[in-house]
Amino acid sequence: EVSSIVVDEDKHSMDVVVDEEQLAMAIGRGGQNVRLASELTGWELNIMSREAADEKQSNESGKTLALFIEKLDVDEEVAQILVDEGFSTLEEVAYVPLNEMLEIEAFDEDLVNELRNRARNALLTAAIVGEEQVEASAGDLLSLDGMDAETARLLASKGVHTTEDLAELAVDELTEMAAMDDERAKLLIMAARAPWFAQG
Questions:
Q1: Per-position b or e across 161-173, b if 16+ CB within 10 A of its CB
Q2: Which of 113, 115, 142, 192 could anchor a disulfide with 166, C-beta 3.0 to 4.6 Å?
Q3: Nearest 5°: phi and psi at 182?
């Protein structure tokens, strides 16, 4: 008997809450029940007790609260109202339909508009910072023979920031990451590894 299910669309996972005494049965011997259910549904299933679910919820609420206080520059009371109303990301504050936010009794229209503007500004700032980091790290990659700006930016956005990072990749990793053919991937990796041989 399932008490509740919390769905995380982004991670394609579900937290399935059951009573403590049914936990072992739900998981199955060696985790076989939950593994089979995961395979059948195509979702990652996390079976947990109500106590564990409450603790997880509490931790996540605390993180969300801190995020809102910092990024929206509001006091704990306003941040707590947002959390209590089910908001968990800056995107939701920025882009949820205006009339939904106006339904929150403690908020008037001025406050709602201010919160939405602050959330959008915070998201924009984060995007610009992220873009600058990608641009900065793509610079090193651009020094390689055969590298173009678009590929450098794509690699940098996936955590490959330097020629050293690129040198450590296998050909199949690079072809998958940057959707290029084997031949080009080989040439780029060899170019990135050239300093290794020069040192010898």
A1: bebebbbebebee
A2: 192
A3: -55, -40
Of the candidates 138, 200, 171, the one whose C-alpha atom is nearest the C-alpha of residue 188 is 171
Q: Measuring CA to CA, which residue among 25, 86, 24 is closest to residue 61? A: 86
Dist. CA 3–CA 26, nearest whole Å: 12
Predicted TM-score (pTM) of the model is 0.56
> Do residues 65 and 93 touch, judged by C-beta distance below 8 A?
no
Residue pair 153/127 in contact (Cβ under 8 Å)? The answer is no
3-state secondary structure of 108: coil
**pLDDT confidence band for 82 (50 / 70 / 90):** very high
Tokens of 46: 């996390």
Classify residue 104 by its DSSP letter: -
pLDDT of residue 142: 82
**Confidence grade of residue 199 (pLDDT, cut at 50, 70, 90):** low
CA distance 97 to 65: 21
Query: What is the distance between the alpha carbons of residues 153 and 176, in angstroms, rounded to a whole number?
Result: 15
Burial 78-96 (b: 16+ CB within 10 A, else e): bbbbbbebebeebeebbeb
The answer to whether the CB of 146 falls within 8 A of the CB of 191 is yes
